[in-house]
Amino acid sequence: MWTALASLLLVVGSLWFYSAPLESQANPLVTPLHVVAPWYLAWSQGWLKLADKVFIAFIFIPALAVAFFVMPYIEVGKSRRYADRRVGLSVAMLFIAFMLISNWMGSPEYRVESSPDQEVFQELLPQEGHSVILSVPYEDLEIGTFEPGQEVAGNPALTDALREFEAAMNRHSCNLESDQWRDDCKPITGNDGTVTQYANNFTKDAMPDAEAVLIVEPEQHDMKRITLQIQSESPEGPVSTNTLAFRHLDAGYEED
What distance in Å separates the CA atoms of residue 93 and residue 42, rounded to the nearest whole number? Predict the structure, then answer.
C-alpha cells in the first residue's frame, strides 16, 4: 500500500508541480558547445570521460546494464521481509547512489569546459536553446553599444539581460591590474614556472582584465545584428574574440 501511495504522490507531483517544457527544435547542422546525452544515457556519458573509451563502451557499460536487469532476481535474504533483506537493500541503495553520481558525471558541469570567452558566449548566445540576449523583445533591443551590468532607462528587459551579461563575465574573468569588482586573478604556472593561465573563485581558466560589450546594429528591414565582443589579456598577449547573432522581428525568441 505504501509503495502505491508513494508512486501516486510522485506522479501527481510530477504532473502539477514540476515543469519540464520542451526545448527549442534541434538543428542537425549545428553541434552545440556542450553535447549532452539523453537522460537515460547520461550515466554512460559520464564514465566515457574517465577512462579508455573502448573499455567503457564495450565492457564496463554492458556489464552495468546486465547488472541492472539481473540484480532484482538475485535474492540473498531468507524471506522478503525488510529485516531479512538488509544486504540486498543495501546493495540496491548503493547501486542507486552510484547511478545518480554517474548521471551527474554525464552533465556539462563535470569535466567539460571550453575557453572562458566561449563559455560566456555559450551562456548568452548559445548555438541552440534559450538565449538571454535573443529573448529580449525585438523593440527593446535598442541600437547601440552596451556594457555588462549597464542599466538602460525605461528598458527593464534589456537591463536584465545586461545583468546576466555581467554575471557571466564575473564568473569567467578576474582582476589582474584593473580595479573592477571581480575576483583577483590567481596565476597557474606550468612545470617551468611560467604562468599558463589564471583562475578565480569560480573557474580554473579565467580571462584577466577582460572588457566586454554588447553591440546592437541594424542589419536589414526588421532584423538586427547582435555582436558580443570580449577583449582580455593572456600570458601570450591581448586576445579579442566575438560572436554574432541576428534577431528578426518575427523570430519569437521571447516565447522560448
Answer: 19
In contact, 225 and 244? CB cutoff 8 Å: yes
* CATH node for 24-105: 1.10.287
Q: Which three cell numbers stand for residue 136?
A: 529580449
List, for residues 153-209, the tens digit of each pLDDT value. 999 999 999 999 999 999 999 988 766 667 888 898 888 888 888 999 888 889 998
| Helices and strands: H and E segment counts in the chain | 7, 8
Where does the chain hold its CATH 1.10.287 domain(s)?
Answer: 24-105
Which cell numbers hold the place of 77?
535474504
Q: Kindly list the distances between the CA atom of residue 3 and the CA atoms of 7, 8, 9, 68, 170, in Å, as whole numbers in the listed order.
A: 6, 9, 10, 21, 47
> In terms of Cα–Cα distance, which of 169, 51, 49, 165 is closest to 110?
49
Most confident of the ranges 3-12, 28-37, 171-180? 3-12
CB 109 within 8 A of CB 171: no
Q: Rounded to whole angstroms, what are the CA distances from 41 to 17, 74, 76, 251?
A: 25, 25, 30, 33
| Cα(250)–Cα(255) distance, integer angstroms | 11
Closest CA to 210 of 238, 243, 188: 238
Q: Which three cell numbers stand for residue 87?
A: 544486504
Instruction: Give the number of other Cβ atoms within 10 Å of residue 46's Cβ.
Output: 21
What are the backbone dihedrals phi and psi of residue 220, each rounded to the nearest 5 degrees, phi first? -160, -175
